[in-house]
């Protein structure tokens, strides 16, 4: 039988047309939440995606193509969610991009884009979602940070700075909302085999002249002691927990799900 824990609630998940965002959107829909999808991709494929999920779980779904680097488009998306569903009860800030280079070689426009999409976008969605959540005295803000929100890696200065910043934003938001029924928490995944990570695997395989499978193994063994990827489904289950009454007093955490990465 379908769970109805979140029925009547609306979740907006940024970057939810693939990877982690899609896994979380599915998990929340399975609990009865209406979903506003956001992300890039083929328009027809996206329409099929959100229609199919709506039918599969018996929830209402919609899509907004806001570019998460543009504050005015983020505002339009939040207004769209308000008009379509009456507001956003669960905000999942997941949109993210990556670029790899030494600090002195890092293209300035890449730095600006990563900070805008991976960090500033979460500030804009949060500031626009909070008045509605506070009015209802219930809300869940879930920020997808990263193991890189807790520890650093070389050549990822913008990503690491943005994800550390996202953990900080989460803590401040949690403190401001502490006397209310609104919570803010961060999830810090290790390696998840998303399109973003698959590209790093492909690049590595080409660079080192090894198979894709070997490149995956090498990538994992450097950082993730379990030797296994975290799955979008596992992250979705954690997001559902954050939305449950059991997590009413879980506030301002940076919860790593990383196969032991940060424990080292």
Q: What topology emerges from the helices and strands here?
A:
Layout: E1 10-13, H1 19-30, E2 34-38, H2 43-57, E3 61-64, H3 71-85, E4 90-93, H4 108-136, E5 139-144, H5 157-176, E6 182-189, H6 195-208, H7 212-223, H8 232-243, E7 254-257
Parallel strand pairs: 1-2, 1-4, 2-3, 4-5, 5-6, 6-7
Helix pairs in contact: 1-8, 3-4, 4-5, 6-7
Which tags fit this structure?
264 residues; alpha/beta; Rossmann fold; 2 domains; seven-stranded parallel beta sheet; 49% helix
Question: Concise description?
Answer:
This protein is α/β, with parallel strands linked by helices. It has helices at 19-30, 43-57, 71-85, 108-136, 157-176, 195-208, 212-223, 232-243, and strands at 10-13, 34-38, 61-64, 90-93, 139-144, 182-189, 254-257.
Looking at CATH, the homologous superfamily of the largest domain is: NAD(P)-binding Rossmann-like Domain
Report the CATH topology name of the largest domain. Answer: Rossmann fold
Order of helices and strands: EHEHEHEHEHEHHHE
**Domains counted in the coordinates: how many?**
2
Q: Specify the biggest β-sheet.
A: 7 strands, parallel
Mean pLDDT: 97
Strand portion: 5-15%
Helical residue percent band: 40-55%
Overall shape: it is globular
Q: Which residues sit in consecutive blocks of at least 5 with pLDDT less than 50?
A: none
Determine and state the CATH class of the largest domain.
Alpha Beta
What's the Cα radius of gyration?
Answer: 18 Å
Organism: Massilia cellulosiltytica
GO biological process, one term: monocarboxylic acid metabolic process
EC number: 1.1.1.30
Family: Belongs to the short-chain dehydrogenases/reductases (SDR) family.
